[in-house]
């Protein structure tokens, strides 16, 4: 197989070069990983959209009225499916705000008015309770659903038993 160069604008080339430098890899590896991640997410998205579209077209079923011609958006996906597609973006946004060790918390209930997703995240103790609120806003905006974030740092400080229980009822992102 013969390798051929791809043409990109100067800004994209600069971004790929910087990523390669910081990740200590080649530009080719950065592009290959990005394309593979995109293809994987796109395939999952299309499979889910196809399943939903088929269900909408079933006779006697009251679907969304989208039919096969309309392209579904991320808003047509269930909250956990949205999270699966945007997991890396969410982790990056949390990391930018000093949060890490993100976990999905199983509340065991889904009443209206409550958050559709509950996440646990380790936060900086200096930020206090504000950190969880800020992270909730970021996650809600990114996923398009109401997300509650609970700080494992604060739980550990004020309710160690609650932290143990929360960790048992959660799984890693």
Kindly report the spatial arrangement of strands forming the biggest sheet: 3-2-1-4
Q: How much of the sequence is in beta strands? A: 5-15%
The major pleated sheet works out as: 4 strands, mixed
Count of individual beta strands: 4
Q: Which architecture of the largest domain per CATH? A: 2-Layer Sandwich
Distance between the termini: 38 Å
Number of structurally distinct domains = 2
Which ranges are low-confidence, i.e. pLDDT below 50, for 5 or more consecutive residues?
59-67
Give the CATH superfamily of the largest domain.
Beta Polymerase, domain 2
Mean pLDDT: 80
Which CATH top level class of the largest domain fits? Alpha Beta
Structural class: alpha+beta
Q: Helicity, in percent?
A: 40-55%
Total helical segments: 7
By CATH, the topology of the largest domain is: Beta Polymerase, domain 2
What does this structure look like?
The protein has 173 residues and is of the alpha+beta class. It is 53% helix and 12% strand. Strands 3-2-1-4 form a four-stranded mixed sheet. The longest helix is centred in the first third of the chain and has 30 residues, at 27-56. Mean pLDDT is 80; it is low at 59-67.
How do you describe this structure in short?
By secondary structure, this protein is an alpha+beta fold. It has helices spanning 10-23, 27-56, 79-85, 87-96, 130-143, 152-158, 160-168; strands spanning 100-105, 117-122, 147-151, 170-172.
Task: Describe the SSE topology.
Blueprint (H helix, E strand, L loop, with lengths): L9 H14 L3 H30 L22 H7 L1 H10 L3 E6 L11 E6 L7 H14 L3 E5 H7 L1 H9 L1 E3 L1
Parallel strand pairs: 2-3
Antiparallel strand pairs: 1-2, 1-4
């Amino acid at each position: 197989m013969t390798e051929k160069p791809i043409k990109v604008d100067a800004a994209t080339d600069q971004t790929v070069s910087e990523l390669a430098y910081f990740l200590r890899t080649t530009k080719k590896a950065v592009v290959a990983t990005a394309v593979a991640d995109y293809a994987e997410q796109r395939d999952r998205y299309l499979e889910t959209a196809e399943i939903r579209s088929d269900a909408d077209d079933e006779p006697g079923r009251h679907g969304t009225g989208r039919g096969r011609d309309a392209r579904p958006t991320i808003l047509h996906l269930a909250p956990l499916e949205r999270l699966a597609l945007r997991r890396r973006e969410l982790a990056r946004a949390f990391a930018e705000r000093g949060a890490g060790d993100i976990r999905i918390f199983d509340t065991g209930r889904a009443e209206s008015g409550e958050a559709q997703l509950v996440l646990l995240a380790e936060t900086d103790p200096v930020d206090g309770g504000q950190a969880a609120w800020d992270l909730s806003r970021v996650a809600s905006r990114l996923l398009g659903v109401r997300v509650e974030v609970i700080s494992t740092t604060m739980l550990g400080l004020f309710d160690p038993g609650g932290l143990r229980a929360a960790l048992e009822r959660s799984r890693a992102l």
